[in-house]
Amino acid sequence: MTHKLTGAIDMASSNFSADIAAWAERTKKRMEEVANLSAQRLAEAIVEATPVASGELVNSFRVSAPPRQSEDAEGSNEGQPVNLAGLGVPLGGMIHMGFTAPHAAAVEYGKDGQAGQGMVRLAARQWPDIVESAARDTAD
Length: 140
What we know:
Layout lengths: L1 H48 L6 H4 L1 E4 L6 H4 L21 E4 L4 H6 E2 L2 E2 L3 H7 L1 H11 L3
Antiparallel strand pairs: 1-2, 3-4
Helix pairs in contact: 1-5, 1-6
């Protein structure tokens, strides 16, 4: 009888371990989904808030993942248009978002007494709501 009981406990323990491992894997995948969806929505919020006078500024918005080369700042390695799917950024990794157009800072912050549009800063303020929404939309 003791042998059967020990075997049942071992089997239950094995099932519990497998269940925990499966839960941990599902949780990690969901965290990655939330992080990627949140980053995508942040990028979209920035683009949507960007003035489209000529289209040059909004079309210069790029997303890239490290390692970031010094050429990125000069615009010769411009990254990708807003498409986070192909970046392969791991959970906890960094994503660089920004504009390559030379007048981006003037539009964001203003210049010569003209008020800035604040498209990046306004989108950044939405970050908690963006993450909350992404978490809801990726629920199991």
